[in-house]
Amino acid sequence: MTLIPQYDPEKFRAIGKNGSGDFETKGLNDFFIVELSVQKNQLQTPFLPHRLTVNDFVFVSKGELIKTVCSDSYSISESTLMILPPYKIRTMETFSDDIEGYYCHFPDELLSRDTGFKNLMEILNYLDLRNDHRIPVPVQVKENILFLLERMKELYKQNEISLLSSYLQTFLAEIKAIIQELPPIVLNANETTAFHFRKKVTQHINTVHSIREYAEMLNVSPNHLNKSVKMAVGKTASAIISETLTMEAKSLLSNTDLSIADIAFSLGIEDPSYFARFFKKHTGNSPNQYRKRIDLSC
């Protein structure tokens, strides 16, 4: 069962503030690009947690936006790019009033297998190891990045998919060149354990909630797992499990009409009263209170 809403590009629609404008009325194909100033005016924020079936990125040329990825919140400021692969939980939280830049999403199929897709994988693998998908764009590269994004926007409007694909691949080549100038990622033993632990939590959060079971998956003791994760990321293993489970619960409460008991069951929790206590402990609201707050804000 997919708990966080998962959007295919053609079905994805912004929740607009006024229900008008290109961002709301133009159907999204597999590729989509829009200026952040337009997105700010027509997207209701915070956008509810969701997954995409395509890659996406934001490039901020001016101002700042806040984006949550999984359970971590990131500030994306001037001359910074954030690129994410499909299926990571994400949500746009806030935009500054002076925001400028671009949002774009695109499928792997737009890329050539020999160069474009390979470049994308190298970029994503590097960022995954670093556990931070933000990339600082040097001043000397910024204008070229903006030119490529502006051309992609125009080609998208003209439905020039072949040319658009070429510009996208050039864009990724530029980003790969930036990555190659950054320090190589060398994980120590604690960071390696934390890296694999986070991946396991993402894969199994609907059914596995105990440190002991994750430790067994990684062939380490629960004590070793907890110490390694704490040393690597400054949080305990149990805190990461709880944060991820809480985000799943928030999404179900926000995006479905399931009963509290059904939501608890969907998350692998058999006792609805335990789920209610867990949720209130980590959010300050009962599940019903949280759902009412969401309804009032819409």
From TrEMBL:
The lineage of its organism: Bacteria, Pseudomonadati, Bacteroidota, Flavobacteriia, Flavobacteriales. It comes from the Bacteria. Pfam families: HTH_18. Residues 195-293 form the HTH araC/xylS-type domain. The keyword Ribonucleoprotein does not apply. This is DNA-binding domain-containing protein, AraC-type. Transmembrane segments: none annotated. Signal peptide: none annotated. Keywords: DNA-binding, Transcription, Transcription regulation. InterPro entries: Homeodomain-like_sf, HTH_AraC, Tscrpt_reg_AraC-type_HTH.
